[in-house]
Amino acid sequence: MVELRVNGAAHALDVEADRTLLSVLRDELDLTGTKYGCGEGQCGACTVLVGGKPVRSCMTPVGSVAGKPITTIEGLAKDGALHPLQQAFIDLDAMQCGYCTPGMILAGAALLAANRDPTDEQIAEALEGHVCRCGTYQRIRAAVHRAAEVMKGGPR
Amino acid sequence: MSDERLEDILADHGLLPDATFSRRDFISALGGGIAVLILFPRSEAEAQRGGPQGPTEIGGWVHIDQAGQVTAFVGKVELGQNARTSLSMVVAEELRIEPSAVNLVMADTSITPYDAGTFGSRTTPGTVPPLRKAAAAARELLLDLAAQQLAVDRTTLTVADHKVTHADGRSLTFGELTKGQKLVQAIPDQVPETPPAEWRVVGHPTPKVDAVTVVTGQKRFASDQKRPGMLHGKVLRPTAYRATLKSLDTAAAEAMPGVTVVHDGDFVGVVAPTEVAAAKALDAIQAEWNAQTLVKPEELYEHLKSTAQQTDRGGNTVGSMVDGLAAAEVKLERSYTVSYLAHAAIEPRSATAEWENGNLTAWTATQSPFGVRSGLSRQFGLPETQVRVIAPDTGNGYGGKTPGQAASEAARLAKVVGRPVRVAWTREEEMTWPHFRPAGVIDVTSGALRNGKLVAWEYHNYNSGPAALGTPYAVPNQLVQHHPCDSPLAQGAYRGLAAPANIWARETHMDEMAHELGLDPLAFRLANLTDDRLRTVLQTATARFGWGQALATGGRGFGLGCGIDKGGYTATCAEVLVDQTTRQVRVVRILTAFECGAIINPLQLENQIIGAATMALGPALFEALEFDEQRLLNTSYSAYRLPRFSDLPQIEAVMVDRRDLPSAGGGETPFAGVAPAIGNAIFNATGVRLRALPLVPNGMPAA
Ligand code: FES
Ligand code: FES
User: Fold this and answer.
1) What is the rounded distance in angstroms from the CA atom of residue B574 to the CA atom of residue B545?
2) In this complex, is the C-beta atom of A56 within 8 Å of any C-beta atom belonging to chain B?
3) By three-state DSSP, how is residue B685 classified?
4) Disulfide engineering: B288 pairs with which of A14, B246, B429, B628, CB 3.0-4.6 Å?
5) What pTM value is reported for the model?
C-alpha cells in the first residue's frame, strides 16, 4: 500500500513500491497529462513536481514519494485560473503536437518559482533535459519570459 | 435525413453504399439537420484498392445539426501540424463563426470519409479547398432556408454569430433553421467563397483550437486511450534485425499470475493486468534467435550503388549531357551521402484494440487510419465494415507512423484474451522496429561557362528517393535519375521524403560550382534561376539576413540553400561559428523565407518554419542511425542525439503571403534548405567542404 498526495488529494493505492510514479499516475489515477517519452530520464515528458521541484516520474519509484505533495499538469491551474505559464503557452502558441507541453510547463513553472526573471541561458539550462521533437523551443523560451513578466505584475 | 433522399444523392454521383463507407454509418453519424458533401473523383489508385467501383467518393462533409452545431468530418490526422485548427478556420470563415465553435471530427474510419493518409503536405492543398467550399455551400443553404421562412429576398440577409439576420432585425439561429430538416447536398458547381479581402479568420494569427486542453493535460493522445477491462500487452522483439525465432521457453512467464502468452510463428506476445506485469512476463521469456548478417556500415554506400536499378520514375532528360559537357568551361564531379535517420517521434506508437461480436475497433497512433484498417481486415479475414480504426491526435509522425504494427499486435492479443488490450511501444521499440529515412548516395556532374551559366547537369540519386529530384535551375542539358536500391534497413517516408536530401546535395554542389567559378553563391544561383517564386524567397531571405554584409572571419561563416517541393518555396540562410580549438560547430543564426501561396494561419506557419529549422539541425549536424551487421546501436534518446535547447540558434521565419495563389502545405518544405545553408556556411568559415550528412557528428574532422 502506498499513500500518494496528488494535486491536493490523498490516495491509498495497492501498488508495489518499486513501480514508477509515471505508471501509477497514468494507469491507476488516470492522470494521463503526464507523458511517457523515453523512460530513461532523457526527455522530460514525464515531469511532475514533488514538493515544488521537477522530478522525472519515469525514474521515480512510487514508494520514494509517498506522502509528499505531488503536482501534475492537471493540478497546476488553481481554482480554474491557469498558471501564467499555461496562459503564456496559449497566447504565444508555444506548442505544436503538445505532447512535450505538460513537462515543459511544469519544469518552467518550477524555474519561475525559484527565479522570477530567468535569462535565456537559465531557461535553456532548466529545460535542457526536455525534448520538443516539434522544435518549439524558441517559443517555449519566449513563453517563460512572458510568464515572468506577468508574474512580476503580481499573480493574476 | 431520409434514406431515399440520400440514396438519390449517392446515385446521382455514382456512389453506392459500399464496404468502405456504409450508408448506415453515414446516417447515424449525421442524424438530421443539413449536410454538404465533398465529392472527389475516385482516383485510379484508390479504385485499385479493391473498393467498389464508382466515379466519385465522399471526401468529407460539413454538417449543421438540429441544434445548430457545426461539425466537419475529415479523414485527416492531427500530428502537431495543426490541421485541426487550420481546417476549423476555413469552415469558420465561410460560416461566419469562430474556429473554436467548429467541431472537427478527424480520422475515424466509421464516421469520417476515406482518406489516403496524412502525409506529403496534402492536407492544405487537398482538403482545405473542398472543405471551404462545403462550408460556403452550407452557408448558402442556411440563407435559402431563412429566405423561405422569413419570406424575404435572400440578398437582404446576413450571416453572423450563428444566426441569419434580416435587414429589419428579425433573425433565425442556425438551430432554428436546421430543426426538422433532413437535407443533404453535394457542393454545387458555383459556390460564392469569401474573397481574400474579406477574410476575418483565414490569414489571421489563430491559436490552436484545443490549446487549453493541451496546457492542462486534458488532451487525450493516442497512448492515453483507455477501455473498461483493458489489459496490457507486450511483444517479444528479436535480438537482431530481421532475425527469426529459433527456440522459445515461456513456462516462467505463463506461471505468472494473470499472464497470458500468445505464440504464433515468430510472433510472441504477452498480456497482463498492468504494463509493468507485462514487461516482467516478457523478461521471463527465454528465446533464441537466428540472426541474419546485414551489410557492414562502412560498406553501406557501396552496397546501395551495387544494387541500384535503372528507372525513369521522377527522372528527367533535357538536351544532351555530351554536348553540355563539351561546351562547359568548368566541370565538377562530386558525390554526396546521407545516413539513415529515425523519426524519433516524441510519442511512441501505441494501440488499444477491442473485439465485440466479431467486430474490431482499434485506437491507434497512425498517419493512415484507412490503411491500417485494410491491414487489419486482411490480417483477420474480416470485411472492412467490421473493422473500425480511430486515430486520436498523436505526438508527431513525420512519416514514421504510417504502418499499423501496434494495432496489429494489440488486435491479435485482444482476440486471444477476449478483453481490450493496449500495446504501447517503448522508446527502444519506437526507434528500432518502424521504417527509417533512407540512406543514400547522390552523384552530381555539372558543367558551367566562366560567366556563371550552367550548361550541364547530371544527377543520380541512389536509394534516397525521388522527391525534389529535378533541379529548379535552368540548365539546357540534363540527365536526372533516381535509382532504387537494396536497403539493409527498413525504409520509408520521413518529413519531406527525399527533398531534404536532394536539396542538400544540389545546393551543396551549387556552392561548390560557385566557388570554382569564383562567384558569390547568391549571384551564381540568381544567374541560373528563372522561377519567379523561388527567386522571390531567395531574394527575401538574403535581404533580411543581410547576405554579403559581414565577412567570414574568426571561424564565422555564412551559407544559403533553397529549393522547391510540394508547392512550397524555401530559402534559408545560416551563420555558423566554428571553434578553431575545440573544432565544434555552433549554428548561430538561421533565417528561412518561405512561400506556399495564401497563408491560412500565420501563427501556425511560423511555428512550422521555426520548428522545421530546429528539427533540421539534427540531420544537418549530428543525427544518424548507427548500426552494425546485426542490429541498430543507438535506439534510445540518450544514444540518439536530438536537437535540444542548447543547440538553438536565433531562428527567424519570413513568410511570403500570396493570397492570389492557392495554399500549399508548410510542414515539410521549410526543412529542406537548412542543411545546405549550414554546410555551405561551414565551408565559408573553414574552407572545408563536407559531403556527408550528418556534417559534424563529432565536430569538424581533423585537418
Ligand atoms: S519519460 Fe521520463 S524523462 Fe522521458
Ligand atoms: S510540441 Fe510536439 S514535442 Fe513539443
Assistant:
1) 9
2) no
3) helix
4) B246
5) 0.93
